[in-house]
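Q: Fold this one first, please.
A: Sequence and structure below.
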Amino acid sequence: MRLKLMRLIGYLFGALSLLIIILAGITYSWTYTDHGRLDYMPAVLSKMAAWNDAPLEMTPEARAQIREMLASMVAEGAFAPGVRYEDRNIPRPDGSLLPIRLYWPAEAEGQGALPIYLDIHGGGWWMGDGYPMHDMNSHFANRSQAIVVSVEYRLTPEHPFPVQLDDCETALRWLHDNAASLGVDPTRLAVGGGSAGGNMAAALAIKMRDEAGPDIGFQFLYVPATDLSDTTDWASFAEMGDYYSLKVSGIHQMIAAYTPNAADQLLPTASPLLAEDLSGLPPALVVTALFDPLRDQGEAYAQALQAAGVPTVLHREEWSIHDFMGSPDRMQRIYDMGADAVHAALYPAP
């Protein structure tokens, strides 16, 4: 009896092992696509997203659920050693308060006035906050040796364009005007962000140039949306469709919520790529991902900046999806690349 039981257990274990091998082979095959190789976890995430054909639910309840999920994924105490941070509420022009979080790099004391990097988080203008990036922002502060500031701008659909951009401008101007009390250098400013945040960072640079605002010295734009107008048939939209986590159908929903007035989509503060003149803008690092519907418009913006005489580096990250989800090593490398570029721009060689 015992021998039979042992044999049964052996058969079951063998069958389970075979099933695991088959499933592993099937899921690994998803990394091979018509457009090149994809990292394993992004391939799995993309397949799961493609199976889910439900429309994007852009509600406060869905936003809260996503925020809770992202917060649970952040390790308690995950933080770069020695970095100090502080939450503040700064006044908007209408008297309401705008939350920001400031990160001072380690050993900032005694270094004199430090430069500022304003980070604008992504989330399709309707969800997200900078706090899940708490660990990344602290490391960015240390590596760039700049004070990193995360701005918690208002969100759609409750607050459509240009409220989000106005909040980012409020934060930038407040940092510039209060530089002395913060111990920062108002002449050394950089902005950056990913996806919708990259869109607003690029728009903010254009707006400050045109309105004689604070002089921005550098812009770090990763996987940015640069054209909300739907006037160009982007090849990456057709290639990626609704298959690679960030869905084209979802992009259209988010753009419609952000700019319900279609005429606004033609403005350079909504679609930086449509600006008639890109000269005189800050030097830029633009990073795109191969499996991202926004890939081509991000690269078109980098090329347009270069054509306008703006020193611009364009980097395409292969094997990855929008925002480098599921590829933590790639994400870390991109953030390190951005921090190094910010440092080089704000600490120019003598």
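Q: Good. Now the second chain.
A: Here it is, same layout.
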Amino acid sequence: MRQLDRHIRNTVIASMAVVVALVVSLDLVFTLVDELGETGQGSYSVFNALSFVLLTTPTSIYELLPFTALGGALIGLGILASNQELVVMQSAGVHVWRIVAAVLKPTLFIMLLSLLLGEYVSPPLEQLANSNKALQLSGSASIGSEQGTWRRVGNEFIHINAIAPGGETLYGVSRYRIDANRQLVSASFAESAQYQREPENAYWRLSNIRESLIEPGSISTANYLQEDWMVDLSPELLSVLLVEPDKQSITGLLRFARFFEAQGLDSANYFLAFWKKLLQPLSTLALVMLAISFIFGPLREATTGFRVFVALGIGLLFTILQRLMEPASLIYGFNPLLAVLMPIALVGALGVYYMRQLR
């Protein structure tokens, strides 16, 4: 039985590896073409574009793992079905659920790999890639709304052109302060900011500041070489500002969502990304279960090409359902956890239903 389990496991793992290689290679080509379109802006060169693509490759692998597991399970089991190996196994008295268990072993490895990539490997590399790109495209010359990030902190709206890796150095910091009546009272621009850690407190030291004070009937300007900026923004929080929520770590998302809540800002987008990443292993498991049920059911005699087509269709429908539920939770205000769980539960229930029909 161990030898049989090993044969099934190796077939499925090999199929998953082939699917990962093909899908990620295509994604890399399209991403590189997209990045090459931005070369020539600032100091962003072809080499920088290639470096960006390589640094973001773990993120691409992480995002595609559930669908490559789905395709690998369909193709791997499909090969066994086409060679009549599944029929021979069942004729020899091997129960269907024993075969399912053998397929789920590599799936559990994919689920663990997904958690490790999403928490420890992908986010820091994504932060480094985005920080380097922002520096090369924007730098500290002036405010550029296409690059960098906008945030509200207290009574200030701030824009940061670029954040150096680690988050302790900022470039191009624009600050717009409003009063209780939502009237603009000052605007300033600092070329850079350095985080200062003191025993009693921590703050940002701004350099080369240009400030405009807006009063009824007059505007006064002033220049400063340095200014201490007391604000509750740690480098740990800033280091993820240039990274989209879906590409941040699970712990980082939770920390940043709580920070948004403390500031009285909308944190639903970050909680949505948090639940999506935390439950991604369940997405992988549900998709693989559906793939297994199809192989023992309607796709038992299908060709490999048709199985690939079905895998693409299932992945597309699952993605569409996710993309519909996620913004719906933000617009209508229902629990982000529910929005993430519904597509997973639907796919999982469909897989269990088909598997029960085999009895």
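Q: Anything worth noting on the second one?
A: The radius of gyration is 25 Å.
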